[in-house]
Write a structure and sequence with these properties.
Blueprint: E1 3-4, E2 13-14, E3 38-45, E4 49-51, E5 54-57, H1 68-72, E6 75-77, E7 80-84, E8 90-92, H2 95-108, H3 116-129, E9 141-150, E10 162-172, E11 184-188, H4 206-210, H5 213-221, E12 226-231, E13 236-240, E14 243-250, E15 256-260, H6 271-283, E16 287-290, H7 295-303, E17 307-314, E18 318-327, E19 330-333, H8 342-356, E20 367-369, H9 374-392, H10 399-402, H11 419-429
Parallel strand pairs: 2-5, 11-12, 11-18, 15-16
Antiparallel strand pairs: 1-4, 3-4, 3-5, 3-10, 6-9, 7-8, 7-9, 8-20, 9-10, 12-13, 13-14, 14-15, 14-17, 17-18, 18-19
Length: 434
C-alpha cells in the first residue's frame, strides 16, 4: 500500500475472506462478543503520512509491546450502528456527528487528523461487504466500532509518530441483559467521579471507561445495575453509566421541562442526546433545557411529586428508563414506569423510526445503503481492486466504464504494470469492456 498525506476511500484495497463465519441468531446476541468477517485498517506514520485503507479478513492485530496506546492510553474509539429497515434498506444514524466527535477526540490525545467524510466512506464500503451481518430483526443492529490507537514503539511520553485506525463490526441485540426497554437501578455516591473540568470527559477515550469499572462493580454488589455519576460539592448529576441523562419533571418554577446536564467539559456529547434535544425542541410541547441538576433538586422534586420520568440515552441502548436510585443509603423511587413512561416510549419510537424507516434530518444525516446480495458484494470487491490497479497504471476511467466489470472476475486482485497491459488483460477477461 502506498502512503498518502490524506487517505481516500477510493483507494481502498479489498481482500475478501475465503470463508464466511455462520451468522448468529439475532435473538441470542450478547453485546460485543460476535464479529463480522472483515475489518478496516488504515496505518499512519509521521514520516509517510496515511497509507491506503485496507479492508481484509477479521484477524488479530500485531502491535509493538511498547506502543503508547498500551502504556499511556493514547487511543480513542467511537460507537455507532447500522440498521436494517422494514424496507430492507440499511441505514446509518447521523454518522457525521460520530466523525466530528472522533476527530475532536483525536486532537485531544495528539493523534493525527483525518478527513471525516473519507473515513465515513471507508466505513460504508466495509458495511456493504459485510451487509449480510446486519440483522434481519427489529430489536438487533450492527454495531460499528471505529478505533484509533497510537503505535509509537517507545516508552517515552510523547506525541506518537505512528498510529493505527481500524474499524470492526459486531451484530448486537439489547445492550442490557434485562431487555431493551426495562427500567434500571442506579447507585449514586460522590466518592467516585467519572470526569472533571479540564479533563477528557467530553471525549470518547478508553481510559474514561476503564477507570469506571471499579465503581460499576461496586454498584452491582449494592444491587444496582449502573452508576449515577455525581460531581462537586452539590452532587451535580452528570451521566448514567455510559449514557447521557434526562429528567422529565415539573421544575421549581412550575414548568413542564425536559432537562439534561450541559456540555461543560465533563459530559460526553452523545449523538442520541443531540437527537433527543432536536426532536423535543421541534415538538415545542414543553420546555427543553441544558442545565445543571443536583441530587438535592431531585430529592426535593420527588418529595413534591414533581418527577415524571428519568432515563438514560445512548447509541447502545437508545433510551433506558430509570426506576430507582440508591443515594446516601436510601432508595429513591423514580416513578418513570408509573407515568407510562409516555415520553421515553415516544422518544424510543421516534428515534427507532428515524433509524430504520425515515429520513427526517436535513443535510443527509442518514446515509442509505442499497441492498446487495453476497454475490454482488464479491463483484463490488473486484470492482474496487481493479479500479485501484487502473489508477496506479495511469489508466483514465469513469465510473460508467468500470461498472461494466462482470462477476466473472470472482474477486481476484489483478495487478497491471502498465496501461497497455491493463487494457490487454481486461480485454481477455471481459470481451467488449474496452
Amino acid at each position: 500500500m502506498f502512503s498518502l498525506s490524506v487517505f481516500k476511500a477510493d483507494d481502498t484495497v479489498i481482500e475478501l475472506a475465503t470463508v464466511s463465519k455462520p451468522k448468529p441468531d439475532p435473538s441470542n446476541l450478547v453485546f460485543g462478543t460476535v464479529f463480522t468477517d472483515h475489518m478496516l485498517t488504515i496505518e499512519w506514520s509521521a514520516k509517510e503520512g496515511w497509507k491506503a485503507p485496507f479492508i481484509g479478513p477479521f484477524e488479530n492485530i500485531s502491535i509493538h509491546p511498547a506502543s503508547s496506546s498500551l502504556h499511556y492510553a493514547v487511543e480513542l474509539f467511537e460507537g455507532m450502528k447500522a440498521y436494517r429497515g422494514d424496507d430492507n434498506i440499511i441505514r446509518l444514524f447521523r454518522p457525521d456527528l460520530n466523525m466530528q466527535r472522533m476527530l475532536r477526540s483525536a486532537c485531544r490525545v495528539c493523534l493525527p487528523s483525518f478527513d471525516k467524510q473519507e473515513l465515513l466512506n471507508c466505513i460504508k464500503k466495509l458495511i456493504n461487504i459485510d451487509q449480510e451481518w446486519v440483522p434481519y430483526s427489529s430489536s438487533a443492529s450492527l454495531y460499528i466500532r471505529p478505533t484509533f490507537v497510537g503505535t509509537e514503539p517507545s516508552l517515552g511520553v510523547k506525541r506518537p509518530s505512528k498510529a493505527l485506525l481500524f474499524v470492526i463490526l459486531s451484530p448486537v441485540g439489547p445492550y442490557f441483559s434485562s431487555g431493551s426497554f426495562n427500567q434500571v437501578s442506579l447507585w449514586a455516591d460522590p466518592k467516585y467521579v467519572r470526569a472533571w473540568k479540564g479533563g477528557t470527559g467530553d471525549c470518547k477515550m478508553g481510559g474514561n471507561y476503564g477507570a469506571s469499572l471499579y465503581a460499576q462493580y461496586e454498584a452491582t454488589e449494592r444491587g444496582c445495575q449502573q452508576v449515577l455519576w455525581l460531581y462537586g460539592e452539590e452532587h451535580q448529576i452528570t451521566e448514567v453509566g455510559t449514557m447521557n441523562l434526562f429528567l422529565y419533571w415539573i421544575n421549581e418554577e412550575g414548568e413542564e421541562e425536559l432537562a439534561t446536564p450541559p456540555l461543560d467539559g465533563i459530559i460526553l456529547p452523545g449523538v442520541t442526546r443531540h437527537s433527543i434535544l432536536d426532536l423535543t425542541r421541534k415538538w415545542g410541547e414543553f420546555k427543553v433545557s441544558e442545565r445543571y441538576l443536583t441530587m438535592g433538586q431531585l430529592t426535593a422534586a420527588l418529595n413534591d411529586n414533581r418527577v415524571r420520568e428519568m432515563f438514560g440515552a445512548g447509541t447502545a441502548c437508545v433510551v433506558c428508563p430509570v426506576g430507582r436510585i440508591l443515594y446516601e443509603e436510601k432508595n429513591l423511587h423514580i416513578p418513570t414506569m408509573e407515568n407510562g413512561p409516555k415520553l421515553a416510549t415516544r422518544l424510543l419510537k421516534e428515534l427507532t423510526d428515524v433509524q430504520k424507516k425515515q429520513d427526517i434530518y436535513e443535510n443527509n444525516h442518514i446515509r442509505i445503503f442499497p441492498d446487495f446480495s453476497p454475490a454482488t458484494a464479491t463483484k463490488r470487491a473486484a470492482f474496487y481492486n481493479i479500479k485501484q490497479q487502473l489508477r496506479q497504471a495511469n489508466v483514465k476511467y469513469s465510473l460508467l466504464y468500470l461498472a461494466k466489470l462482470k462477476v466473472e472476475l470472482q474477486g481476484q486482485f489483478y495487478v497491471f504494470a502498465s496501461k497497455e497491459e491493463a487494457e490487454k488483460e481486461l480485454r481477455k477477461l471481459i470481451p467488449g469492456l474496452i
